[in-house]
Design goal:
The protein is an alpha/beta fold and 435 residues long. It has helices spanning 3-9, 11-14, 79-88, 90-94, 111-128, 142-153, 177-190, 215-226, 237-250, 257-275, 293-297, 309-319, 344-355, 378-392, 398-412; strands spanning 27-29, 40-45, 51-56, 63-68, 98-102, 134-140, 162-166, 329-334, 361-366. It folds into 2 domains: 3-173 and 321-429, Rossmann fold (3-Layer(aba) Sandwich); 174-316, no CATH class. Strand 8 (329-334), helix 13 and strand 9 (361-366) form a beta-alpha-beta unit. Mean pLDDT is 94; it is low at 1-21.
């Protein structure tokens, strides 16, 4: 057994990891209708309380894809989350890969905990479902952060042969700095989150502990001020002016303002009150907002908050990838992604360079302005390229991957949009630097 060695080397990842023999076998489950005929599905709850789903296609190619989902979801874990993930990533099973994914044992921004759950569900699959010839760790969105951290936590015995990061949050907690900018700019323009007659609080904590404010109310307030639920032509001139100020300051489309505002409310609340001792790791001291004259006026009126150093350290310890990934890593990201900025890949490349593992990394980009899903042809292309790299040791180029995608179009549709010439700019060109 290699587990004791793993725990000695990776105490942070093993403290809550039960021995493999304590995990009960999953039960046969109904497969989502979108999966190919003959697929066998399984579901269960691991020893830490995380629900999970697994799928084994009839024509299995011998490779297992272990999925870390995005979000993060808030609230208690539910099996429905894993079912939804399996449906969204049904293309993986259609392409002949086995799939397993955990709903994680807790909601909220807990990266290392989610990485533990992901490794646990891999072990369950290997023990109780089938033994793969090759295992690929796949992280999507926030799950990209989970996978990038988990791939460094679990290296003894090589549980993962390769890593696929799609639309990933790959700059750790710093990825979210601009959401504090959104909170302070929104409040300067709208003044209703919080309202003047409500408890005032530092916006970096999202909400006070115990607040009962609902997601729907945040969106209602945003529509009250900005009419985000209406086309631009139906907004008042003042509403459209405020929307444009936010768009210019943060370089995000108007359609994503409401989502980022809710994440900057409830995810920040989870981080501050559950993860960092009631203090905020987010600050905007020294941030100078650039753009239009309207944007630059904000510098004199927005609230300013210092980031708490201890809170920053706690968040960094949980979320920052260290780049020490000993196996091939392939990434893909839509250039126009409005949720996770493509510039995080410049940060991630530098992270792997510092770790001495840049030779393990290939980054690809697509001409997509989507986040949650790119195209049916893209994912089989990436999985095939990554599988071949893991087996042969021959590193593919972005150009080769773009060309290879065309081979999958007759089966999965003419939707290849790889742009091998693209190189992301530093994250500081997208998110306002701060002290």
């Amino acid at each position: 057994m290699k587990l004791p060695i793993l725990c000695l080397a990776l105490l942070a990842g093993c403290a809550t990891q039960p021995p493999l023999t304590t995990e009960t076998a999953p039960q046969a489950a109904a497969c989502p209708a979108v999966l190919p005929a003959g697929t066998r599905c399984f579901s269960g709850q691991d020893s830490a309380g995380a629900p999970y789903m697994a799928a084994l296609p009839a024509q299995w190619n011998g490779t297992l894809v272990v999925h870390a989902h995005g979000g993060p979801t808030l609230g208690a874990p539910k099996l429905a989350r894993s079912v939804e993930d399996l449906e969204r990533w049904s293309i993986v099973v259609k392409a002949g890969y086995a799939w397993v994914g955990s709903a994680f044992r807790q909601g909220g921004v807990a990266v290392r905990s989610a990485a533990e759950d992901t490794e646990r569900v891999r072990r369950i699959f290997v023990q109780h479902v089938a033994k793969p010839e090759l295992t690929i760790l796949h992280g999507q969105s926030w799950g990209g952060n989970v996978a990038a951290v988990g791939a460094s936590m679990y290296t003894q015995g090589k549980p993962y042969d390769a890593v696929l990061l799609t639309s990933g949050v790959l700059a750790g907690g710093r990825t979210y700095d601009f959401r504090l900018d959104l909170r302070v700019i929104y409040q300067a323009l709208c003044g209703n989150h919080p309202r003047p007659d409500e408890v005032q609080y530092p916006l970096g904590i999202g909400l006070p502990a115990g607040s009962k404010l609902a997601n729907e109310e945040v969106r209602r307030r945003a529509n009250e001020c900005l009419a985000l639920d209406k086309p631009a032509a139906q907004r008042t001139p003042e509403q459209q002016r405020k929307v444009q100020v936010i768009v210019d300051a943060l370089k995000i489309p108007a359609a994503s303002i409401a989502s980022h505002l809710t994440w900057a409310t409830f995810h920040f609340q989870d981080i501050a009150h559950v993860r960092t001792g009631g203090r905020s790791p987010f600050g905007n001291t020294g941030a100078v907002y650039r753009g239009s004259s309207e944007v630059e006026k904000l510098n004199g009126v927005v609230a300013r908050y210092p980031a708490d150093p201890e809170a920053q350290a706690r968040l960094a310890a949980d979320t920052e990838p260290d780049g020490r990934i000993p196996v091939p890593v392939l990434t893909v990201h839509g250039i126009g992604d409005p949720t996770v900025f493509v510039e995080v890949h410049d940060t991630f490349r530098r992270t792997m360079e510092r770790a001495g593992t840049a030779g393990h990394l290939v980054q690809t980009f697509t001409a997509d302005d989507a986040h949650s899903y790119l195209s049916d042809s893209a994912y089989p292309t990436l999985l095939a390229a990554l599988s071949d790299w893991a087996r042969s040791g021959t590193k593919p180029t972005p150009e080769q991957i773009a060309t290879r995608c065309r081979d999958f179009e007759p089966t999965y549709g003419k939707n290849c949009r790889f742009r091998p010439e693209y190189r992301p700019q530093p994250l500081a060109t997208r998110i306002t630097p701060r002290d």
